[in-house]
Amino acid sequence: MRGLPTASIVRAGLVGGVSALFVSLVGLYTRFADLELVGEQITLGRVLIPAPALVAAYVVTRPRFVGGERRPIVLGGGLAVGTFTGAVTGAVFALAVWFADWFGVDRIRQVFVQVTEPLIDFLTFDKGVPAGLAILVVLCLAGGAIGGFERTAPASIRTPAAVGVLTVLALGLLQRIVPIILIQLGIEADWLYTPSTRGLTWLGAAGIFVVAAAANVLWTRGGARAGQRVRTTIQEAPAAKLGLLVVTLSLLSVLPLLLGTVISEVLGQVMVFVLLGIGLNIVVGYAGLLDLGYVAFFAFGAYTTGLLTGALLNTTTGAAEPVLSADLNFYVAVWIVALMAAGLGLLIGAPILRLRGDYLAIVTLGLGEIVSIITASRWAQPLIGGPQGMRGVTNAEILGLNFQKDPQAFYYLALAFVLLALFVSWRLAASRVGRAWTAMREDEQVADAMGISTIKYKLLAFAMGGAIGALGGSLFAVNIGSLSPSSFGILISITALAVVVLGGLGSLPGVVVGALVLIGLPGLLREFEEYRLLIYGGALVAIMVLRPQGLIPNVRRSRELLEEEVEQDAWAKGVTGQAEAVVGVVPGGRLAGESENLE
Amino acid sequence: MGTATEERQERGAQLGRLERLPWRKIILIVLSILIVSIVAIGAFRTLTLPPDQRYAPAAWRDFIVLGVAQGAIYALVALGYTLVYGILRMINFAHGEVFMFGAFAAFFFSDAYERSGFLDANPWASIAIMLVVAMLTSMGVAVLLERVAYRPLRNAPRLVPLITAIGASLFLQNSARGFFGAQTRGFGVPTILDGTWTVLGLTVDRIQAVVLLTVVVAVILLSTFISKTTTGKSMRAVAADSEIASLMGIRVDRVIVTTFAIGGLLAGIAAVLFSMTFQAVDYTMGFRIGIAAFTAAVLGGIGSIWGAALGGISLGLLQSLGPALILTGYAIPSPFQLKDAFTFLVLVLVLIFRPGGLLGSGEAEKV
Amino acid sequence: MKNRKYFAMWALLGALMLVAAACGDDDGGETGGGGGTSATGGVVDCAADEFGCVEVQAGEPILLGGILTISADTAYLGTDAQHGVELAIDYLDGTFDATPGQLLGHDVEFQVEDETGTGGVCSTDGGQAAATAISAAPDVVAVIGTSCSSAALGVADQIMSDKGILLVSPSNTNPGLTSEEAHEPFYARTAHNDKIQGAIVAEFVFNELGLTTAATINDESPYADGLAAAFRDNFEALGGTITGIEAVNSADTQLEPVLTSLAQGEPEAVYGPNFPPVCGLTLLQGADIFPAGTVFLGSDGCLETSFVGQVGDPPADYYASSPDTTAFQGGDFYSNEYSPAFKEQYGTQTSVFNAHAFDAANVIFDAIEAVAADDGSGNLTISRTALKDAFFATSGYEGMTGIITCTPLGDCATDVTIGIFKYPHWDVEGGVEPIKPVYSDTKSLDEVI
């Protein structure tokens, strides 16, 4: 009945235990031990304690494929397996904590700096080693049980429960943002968020749980069918897809008025990265050119905008004029910048676009580094200010709207450019150029043989991508007003790539979602800044291994990315979600399982 | 009647001739002339600066020796990249982090030994222990990386493992920061390796000499291993065609793990040597040296062991001679700040003329 | 055909919404200029104050904001300053007892926003995000920040000045921030202006050591760049010669070629105001390249434990400049009360700027006390402009780090004492006694270039 070998359960438990150790050693418990989510007892740190066991149990109880058949596990078995997994995880965890206590925290701290007395106290709930460890193990057992429950319980119970809990968690984490919104809408927030701890009140948490769970139940009952119909309509009419996008963005456009300056500021940053994502999407997603140096165009756009609109160099004595500058209106300068960037893209692209994928990646990485180095160099200091940077970029004032001082106004400016870029990108993808790109991507030699001038289309992609990237840089410069080389490092290239990849290569809605997740969330949850890059790295690996087509896949691209698996049993077996998609491949049409993937 | 058609035919013929011109060759020729002249003029101007601004001959000798010494370290790390690329056709961006963890492991031992005095009392023993620890740690990280991040993607299109590698690199770097803290740590050198030796009239730092020696030995050993031993031959077979290799009875998974392990081993050795040369470790060191090392590997011709060695040494020389010889001639302020930029530029140019790198085939991708 | 029509429709809708939104009004957020509610003494005129007043009801805390870099690589700077402010709040009750005191009968709440940007280090966009977040909180009385100069210059200082919120930095040292052209009215700092540090080092080298030729080597940070420039200006003004100017990247490990190039000019001193590991490498690699007797100097960025671990026995003379904590005005207070309290509550100090944060907080508290109007039942009204004026009027205040007298351009650490410490007699773990500066001088801003 269970069909799960003990070895597999033990292995899952061990992985869970090691993950728990990782979480401790990297400092997540210490950092978030005091972040109250609900009341005074439920802190994020405490929630993270049973989390590894929960996830391990959830993974190990997934339906197996025996002889091509999908065999889910029943509830009783799931609970048992989950608890067992939790036990193993708890054992490993407790053993490690005990060891740390016995061996001497100070000695371990010579190597692992996060292992401190407060950490041990936290993990033993201030009750000392034997008693505290028992609680730890029990919590892990509970976590495992919940994980097993979540996987195997009937859908009518587990989905609303999960939705409810996750919503409470989310609103607890957003404790700095939601109260501001509520206050601005004129709603008193005391019943929801406790002023002293900033976390949710018990009443509030319970209320949110009930509301969220109920909403989910209603959705599954009635909404899902309607949603399905809407989805099929969208998939069949590309214009409706774009229309949906425009409507979504227009809705987003009303948000700043509701959400105030802080969130508008974050959304403004998101919009800049959406622009970067759209540009990089053309290069990587459409034309299949791996560009790891996209920051070059971003920096070029920002600095050139500064130079063309009369920005000054920062010096130790105050300010100085750059050797070359102009004082144009932003709305004139921005098009010049875009054109110059396109030209730069052509110039750079011409020699390097013949190179094979990996080589191209390294060369573009190098070019990005070259630009980063030059922005901070003494050589270029008379032009762009060196390490001190520039300030005084125009605020692009129009109709009395100051886009530098007013985050909400800036959001709209950025949105306008994003809509323009989306339109251009969409039209390109649907045109002959887009089809040429697709052909090149799938098999370059064949495309060449068919008469498509690969070099011409690659150059076009590079130039367009460069122009849009420069637009992003331009907006960035207007938003902040000051430019410093520390904003233009390789991390920007990697972040832009992550945005495109996470959202889905070749998918425009994906870029928006990717930017919202990778820039918007960290912007709102500033407490996690310390771990942002760790999470980025983990997310990239996870997405590539589990769902390489991204969150909102482009149908065509996912076929390419998943194509190999149709023959590979191994991959299909390894990941449940994929199996559905693979099984449903319909020749000549979209993947039958696509609609599920789009959830 | 005749003239219009004739004109059109003529124009057509002219355009045809225009199209048939070997544009690529022309651009390449023009580019090469440009490069040669820029380099020559720069070098000439540097060498003919007034005597008080000129570099002394001793300085040039130093630049060359330093370049080779630094290049040797790049070469050691580049070997790891080139091995993995040969087998999997992917650039393991996270190899730098494999290196970095090895360095930290060695550091903790070195720190403890230094404080207890063991380091100076038994220098060879401590060095040996540090090497073993570093090698084991790096091997462990490399094998773990392969198992978790790369094995599931064995058959995925090339873009996917590349992005995974970048993600893994970020993840490992920041894990190290979480574990060990963000501060730089000072790495002590045992006194026997402190100081210089005079070889053939050249004074080299002892540690530099050790590094050079290690690289030479490593390259020779590795080449012999690849060409003579069974495992090495299996590695070559898998590199050539993994499907056929598995049909021939070679356990492909095993071979790949072995490759990563060897790469990790080399990285561990490089980590100890690097830390002793520059006497500092921090969590970003892997990233920086990673970029340099795979630039070196690509420069020399990735997939080739001798290419990695050549690329490493060339890179080191470029970084030290380039700004000195060429940029100084153009009176660029603080030319050494641009050394990385200069190096990447050279990489781009090399790849334009020889897409496979210096020791590569010289042709663009074969089918 | 149909597609185009749909698209046009949606686009039009979108555009209309855009226009509508643009015509909408801004959010509130700011506390209105309520009015000088029955102040005892009645000198608070909120209506006349263009930035209005902050009202703190009885029982509510006084909100102090912070824009500091508390994550990623530069965390050592920001968290350090954060602790300094927290100690100041602790000391409101007169003792360091880990329990916060009260100001005018109100608790003080310190809310810090992170100025780390998308690039992973403190930068302009991080400063903007943090400043926007802080300025949106309606009742922020004053802000302590920023950590990095790039987050302040043209960014946070502007945002705060536009809202009339006092911004005091404990660690910005970039001279541009308090220059004629760039200074924003509500910005001030208790950290020293790097021109002073550069000048004192130059004098040490020229006068004390008697060396007349020097070279500088700095990394790509604005801190190093500014400090090196200040040194050069003052050194040449004294009559010295700068034989070479070089720059490296903070991640570089092979400095020998650069140093060889610098050695061509035969400088007697090499000034490298950088961070580890570059400072250590400059010494280690430079000692072999430069002739014996060449002196190497660094700045407070180099004063770290890792330098000791990296260098060990010094192959050549190395000096580092830093604010002279032994000469702190409140010398006894600093060593007998403040430092032990810091160590007990937070561990070792990771930068020298936490003391400046302590002073900044205290001066702000004094200014609040001076201008806050209590209506008798514990409700405070604080006029923003009056607060700023009171702060800028601070003169002769005996802070822990020195005499604090604010200039109209915002430099409050007007008399700065910089000490030159010879390695290994540094005040870090692994440093060797006696930990005293070999040279120490106090200068004010008008004495330097």
Characterise this structure.
- Chain A is mainly alpha-helical and 599 residues long.
- Chain A has three domains: 1-153, no CATH class; 159-236, no CATH class; 265-489, no CATH class.
- Chain A has 27 helices and eight strands.
- Chain A has helices at residues 6-25, 28-32, 44-48, 51-60, 75-103, 105-109, 117-123, 129-152, 155-173, 178-184, 202-236, 238-286, 295-308, 330-352, 357-376, 381-384, 407-430, 432-442, 444-449, 454-480, 490-503, 508-524, 532-546, 555-562, 569-574, 576-583, 594-597; strands at residues 36-38, 42-43, 64-66, 69-71, 312-315, 318-320, 390-391, 482-483.
- Chain A is globular.
- Residues 564-599 of chain A have low confidence and may be disordered.
- Chain B is mainly alpha-helical and 367 residues long.
- Chain B contains 14 helices and four strands.
- Chain B has helices at 2-20, 23-47, 57-88, 95-116, 118-121, 123-150, 159-180, 206-228, 230-240, 242-247, 252-278, 285-300, 305-327, 339-353; strands at residues 185-186, 196-199, 202-205, 280-281.
- Chain B has a two-stranded antiparallel ribbon. In chain B, strands 2-3 form a two-stranded antiparallel sheet.
- In chain B, helix 3 (57-88) crosses helix 12 (285-300).
- Chain B is globular.
- Chain C contains twelve helices and 18 strands.
- In chain C, the strands form four sheets. Chain C has a seven-stranded mixed sheet, sandwiched between helices. A six-stranded mixed sheet of chain C has the order 3-4-2-5-6-7.
- Chains in contact: A-B, A-C, B-C.
Question: Could you provide a short overview of the structure?
Answer:
The complex is a heterotrimer of chains A (599), B (367) and C (449). Chain A is mainly alpha-helical and 599 residues long.
What topology, given as strand order, has the largest sheet of chain C? 9-8-10-11-12-17-18
What class, by secondary structure content of chain C? alpha/beta
Give, in spatial order, the strands making up the sheet with the most strands of chain A: 6-5-7-8
**Main interface: chain pair and counts:** A-C, 72 and 68 residues
Biggest sheet overview of chain C:
7 strands, mixed
Which overall shape of chain A is indicated by the principal axes computed on the Cα atoms? globular
Q: How many domains would you count in the coordinates of chain A?
A: 3
- Average predicted confidence as pLDDT of chain C: 85
Average pLDDT level of chain A: 84
